[in-house]
Amino acid sequence: MGSSANKPQLIVDGKRISGRGPMDLRNLKITAGVLKKANGSAMIEWGNNRVLAAVYGPREVFPKHTTDPRKALIHARYVMAPFSSAEEHGRSGPNRRSIEISKVAKHVFENNVLVNQFPKTMINIDMEVLQSDGGTRVAAITAASVALVDAGIPVRDLVQGVSIGKVDGMQVADLDKNEDNYGESDMPAIVSLRTGEILLYQMDGKLTRPEVDNALSMIFEGAKKVREKQVEALRAKYETDVAPQE
Ligand code: CDP
Fold this sequence. Notes:
- By secondary structure, the chain is an alpha+beta fold.
- It has helices spanning 96-110, 136-150, 177-182, 209-241; strands at 11-12, 15-16, 28-32, 40-46, 49-60, 73-80, 121-131, 160-167, 170-173, 185-192, 197-201, 204-205.
- It is built from four helices and twelve strands, in the order ββββββαβαββαβββα.
- Strands 3-4-5-7-6 form a five-stranded mixed β-sheet. Strands 8, 9, 10, 11 and 12 form a five-stranded antiparallel β-sheet that branches. Strands 1-2 form a two-stranded antiparallel ribbon.
- β3 (28-32) and β4 (40-46) form a beta hairpin.
- It starts with 10 loop residues before the first strand and ends in a 5-residue tail after the last helix.
- The site of cytidine-5'-diphosphate (CDP) has 15 residues, from α2 and α3.
């Protein structure tokens, strides 16, 4: 949460300054299979966020001594390009924050990929933030889930999420950077709609118990919309892939 000095008014006449309603997500578009060399890939355009996800594997483990004879190792790497945001220029690249996001993404996918089917291998999941505007961890993991499926790697479910915040006392979905910086609370989460599981749940700021319950309902509602876009992306890729070759 940002400092309260220079805090802009985020809710004007009961409406978000972007004009969105409390549950409205920013424009969302996902494209699967954007990289030729990766086994799977996806580009997510979510509001002003642009994140590219690439998946390699299952492949031989490097360094070899880390090999697990029982399952595939998941290596996840989230990083912001140095040009991804004007405000924090020069503070991008691997840092405490990107290491944390890589770690939580790894946990999400360790519980999502059927790792026991691929012993002695590793799967690399790379998430590169090209442009950031709040909610990039959720956007990156959502894109990575599509990239994994695009790679043909068996998973329990497509996973996705949305960040629920509280701005000027109102609970709203999919915070942009301004709302994230100046809001009272931010709760990013990743869920599986098929199993009803919450795979990632982080929180910044303070919420009451009823607000947490409400945020959880909003997360599952938002996730349904995000999932539709993931399925659309994979369907579009699949339809072009099976089209007759020239
Ligand atoms: O992106 P997300 O909301 O998951 O993470 P955050 O740590 O809450 O950061 C919120 C936003 O601040 C990011 O999406 C970026 O737009 C911006 N940010 C940045 O520009 N440079 C950083 N080093 C960290 C955050």
